[in-house]
């Protein structure tokens, strides 16, 4: 295959899982605007708690980077998460009557805790390619979801439109492409056992992506 890169290998081996995510009623509900407000509020609160630790992972990746250029990109990703992404949550919740202080006090659900524990532990114990493998499902998965939903037509609900617009934006696509490129570079000459470990990290993180949407649908 002309695109037989390591990321493509990761993505294709987990395609059934991603198809389950794309067709999950929570994701489809954002796309067509039928998702109930209570489910979306639950999701926003849990995702806000998730993004706090997601930001820590970018900070740790920055600290473990070996070049200034790589440090700069991880720092930019940290800034985008803390500002653009989390500000979307703050703005939407404010419109729903949920103050930022209340949002910040959200207690993690078991799924959120398990997912962020995987991310943070990997960032503390691993090296940059390990961090990349565990970040890719969220960072690239949301871009893919956003672009798919955008291609199907935007919903009338302004909050769901904003969500789709954010994750389908060129800026998020650019960051996702950079993460993919760095993962491919690290995997190019890596031994089989390292590549297998990165497969495990990627798949574990992707499974939590499914569970996160499912948890939000069920409000667990």
Protein described:
The protein is mainly alpha-helical and 220 residues long. The protein has a single domain (6-21, 38-218), classed as Heme oxygenase-like (Heme Oxygenase, Chain A), CATH 1.20.910.10. Helix content is 82%, strand content 0%. It contains eleven helices and no strands. It has helices at 6-13, 15-22, 25-32, 37-64, 68-95, 100-104, 110-125, 128-151, 158-167, 170-187, 192-218. The radius of gyration is 17 Å and the shape is globular. The N and C termini lie far apart (42 Å). The mean pLDDT is 91.
Question: Could you list some keywords that capture this structure?
Answer:
single chain; 220 residues; mainly alpha; Heme Oxygenase, Chain A; 11 helices; globular
Q: Profile the largest sheet.
A: none
Helix content: over 70%
Residues in β-strands, percent: under 5%
Shape: globular
CATH topology: Heme Oxygenase, Chain A
Number of helices: 11
CATH superfamily: Heme oxygenase-like
> Nearest-angstrom radius of gyration?
17 Å
In the residues, how many domains can be counted?
1
Quickly give the CATH architecture. Up-down Bundle
End-to-end separation in angstroms reads 42 Å
Total beta-strand segments? 0
- CATH class bucket: Mainly Alpha
Question: Order of helices and strands, N to C?
Answer: HHHHHHHHHHH
Low-confidence stretches: none
Class from secondary-structure proportions: mainly alpha
Give the integer mean of the pLDDT values.
91
């Amino acid at each position: 295959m002309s695109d037989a890169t390591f990321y493509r290998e990761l993505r294709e081996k987990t395609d059934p899982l991603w198809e389950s995510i794309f067709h999950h009623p929570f994701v489809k509900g954002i796309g067509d605007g039928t998702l109930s407000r209570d489910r979306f509020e639950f999701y926003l609160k849990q995702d806000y708690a998730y993004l706090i630790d997601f930001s820590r992972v970018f900070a740790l990746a920055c600290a473990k980077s070996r070049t200034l250029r790589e440090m700069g990109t991880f720092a930019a990703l940290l800034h985008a998460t803390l500002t653009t992404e989390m500000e979307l949550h703050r703005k939407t919740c404010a419109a729903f009557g949920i103050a930022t202080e209340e949002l910040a006090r959200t207690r993690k659900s078991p799924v959120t805790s398990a997912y962020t524990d995987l991310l943070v532990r990997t960032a503390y114990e691993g090296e940059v390619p390990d961090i990349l493998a565990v970040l890719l499902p969220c960072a690239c998965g949301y871009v893919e979801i956003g672009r798919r939903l955008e291609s199907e037509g935007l919903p009338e609900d302004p909050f769901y439109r904003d969500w789709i617009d954010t994750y389908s934006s060129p800026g998020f696509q650019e960051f996702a492409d950079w993460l993919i490129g760095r993962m491919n570079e690290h995997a190019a000459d890596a031994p089989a056992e390292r590549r297998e470990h990165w497969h495990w990290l990627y798949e574990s993180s992707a499974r939590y992506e499914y569970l996160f949407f499912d948890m939000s649908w069920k409000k667990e």
